[in-house]
Amino acid sequence: MSVDLDIVRKMTLEQRQALDLDTKIEIAKAQIKQFYERMDGKVYVAFSGGKDSTALIHLVRSVYPDVVGVFSNTGVEYPELKQFVKKFDNIDIIKPKMPYPKILKEYGFPVISKEVAGQIETIRNISSSKTKNAKIFGKGNYGGLPKKYRFLYFAPFKITNKCCQILKKDPFHDYHKETGRCPFVGVMASESIKRKESWHKHRCNAFDMDIPQSRPMMTWLEQDVWAYIKKFNLEYCSVYDTNGITRTGCVFCAFGIMHDNPNRNRFQALKETHPGLYKACMNMGWGDVLDFIGIPKE
Hints:
The chain is an alpha/beta fold. The protein is built from 13 helices and eight strands.
């Protein structure tokens, strides 16, 4: 099946998301070929070991079998994930320059969302009390913090959104500088408003970014990923079969915690499934943080 990328580009996101899986696969392969050729083959797959990047690396290698995968060993992944990554050939391992406990100490804890945490961190660093109050409560030209999260400004601990930058983005940026390779990334517009906006701005092959990247699965939905894994009988990380675990990102992260299952959030699940990790998490100070923001941890 031949895909006209000009026609595909003009389709709306909703139209693209409504396509059947086989059509989405062919469009993704066309995007992969376009990006690979434009980058003269200097590419890699950003491989986290999660379900999305598991589908992505298979998809890319179905077109170009020798493309390298790159895994950022942040130090805060599930042990099952690290073991799963070891099963793949041609994977480069990169590491952050700052360990996670030091990030918590120097910058703070990632809570609620990147946007809220970033707002609080910025406001706390403002010297003018007038501007500070305006940005907290929304005065003049400032929108202010969301009312339900304003109490976090007064938290007795630091709050940050720098974790992702230090643990993942910086190592991948350094890898790009060292190798000249540009990434295939397994993100989807359906995951957040921010990613939806990114699709509208850059589409799947973002040649206009500072570091060009291809997001060939950008118009897929979560059910497409699982259907792809089933279609090609792909092995996936066993942590997904552990009761209560639906995400494989950094274990000690509270971004999106307000949307967790109210009867069993990620930290409660962690205590049951990985008691050693849970103990380490609490020893880092997360117990007091969760108590302050009203999230059960037992």
